[in-house]
Please model this.
Amino acid sequence: MQAIVAPMLELRSLPVECAQRRRDSACATCGARAFSVCDSLPPEDLDQLDAIAEQTRFATGEVLVREGERADHLFNVTSGALRIYKLMPDGRRQITGFLFAGDFVGLATGPTYAFSAEAIEDTTVCRFRKADYLALLQETPALGSALLERARHELAAAQNQMLLLGRKSAQERIASFLLDLPGLDPARPLEDGHVHLPMTRAEMADYLGLTIETVSRGLTKLKTAGVIRLLSLHELRVEQPERLRAIAEGEA
Amino acid sequence: MQAIVAPMLELRSLPVECAQRRRDSACATCGARAFSVCDSLPPEDLDQLDAIAEQTRFATGEVLVREGERADHLFNVTSGALRIYKLMPDGRRQITGFLFAGDFVGLATGPTYAFSAEAIEDTTVCRFRKADYLALLQETPALGSALLERARHELAAAQNQMLLLGRKSAQERIASFLLDLPGLDPARPLEDGHVHLPMTRAEMADYLGLTIETVSRGLTKLKTAGVIRLLSLHELRVEQPERLRAIAEGEA
DNA sequence: CGCAGCCTTGACCATTATCAACGCTGGTGG
DNA sequence: CCACCAGCGTTGATAATGGTCAAGGCTGCG
Model:
């Protein structure tokens, strides 16, 4: 089996210094884009991880894990993008995060998954049997602190998202989202004001607690105001970053 | 110094089995209500924690930590209640959680605090210097896994709250809140349908992403429908738990 | 070329916020 | 001891943000 070493981390909204690292560093062991935890783990630990990793592919739309099912596997994204979401009985959906290369799937997991995960692009992951992973975790303190560090980021990001969902207007949510996105996907390095949106309007809406119509109108409004330029449905450029930031913070 | 051993955990919305443990078990070392992690830590580790803990009191309204300040301390609540919140420049507030005895303050913390914390009742905490705590963490694998476990709960709770804020109606949010509350405060054991609300309507509103008026109207509506009975401003009884659950899930 | 899926735009509507008045309660001072 | 006041909560009237419904446009693929 050609296992790829799995960096284990899950970061949704990164502090600046993390985003930097994600671009500048490359994990020597993982051929691919692997960051953060990879960086902080000694090579022998990486080898251990390598030994229990199983590379798997998911096509767009395929489901990795389903909320409520027994949590037998943990994953590490090596390329592509996922959405993490929860559903209500009547079908309402809240996307709690988008994951990219380097992110870890399963931090918030107990005996069963508390969320569903689905590929929004063709995606490769390293899959771990949970039992194997936990066993390794026992023997590898560095792995534990790396995971704790990831959990910290996750929690901070979650609190930001709660502020967004509970107290920001539609326009503020959209602006905040556009500011958070660049740098999340290490496969697409930051470049001037370029933002790549791998998700549909519906997914943005379900992430921001809005409807697709409101997202569409919001983007149009930003475009009309000259704050952003829509290059295509899934590519845009931020023309006035400072104004966008002001809108996101409610100062405009 | 008469340090009290600090159980370290932070749980906001507990799985049932945790709530059970919080009521049934008592940490032998901590005199007070101390749970979860305490249970899982061997006595020698508890002694270590004890050695670096400093007991502190906060009166209602006092601020423990302020968003953006350098994170020099971590805390463990031993009695009372806190609110954790974030502010926007114009004063809008999102409360991201309420913490009670046994909960840990600082999981989501990097070099600076990502949130503010304030006592909503007279509260006692164990305070740790962050450096001491991290040093102990290095030497104590059990502490690391306990914290990771807490982080798991936190993340799952945060995802639930995102679903609530992003996709639930006002009535559904209020019902969900009433269902989550009992059992969070170990000082007030679960008893039939009794719910104690240590917070004001304004705090509920800022937690649920609503206004005080909407919260008030929502409670009145539940009362009128016979689902709950208001015993006083801060005490109520759930008369029809099943209906309340149905409302919370959007099935009514 | 045509269709399907996604996106945008417009008109209208509903939920919840806002503004305002009033009630209750607990604490203080006359 | 009573009266007043401040703070919090409730209720009502109105407004606005964002949702819903509907029609039409764009794009990419078969």
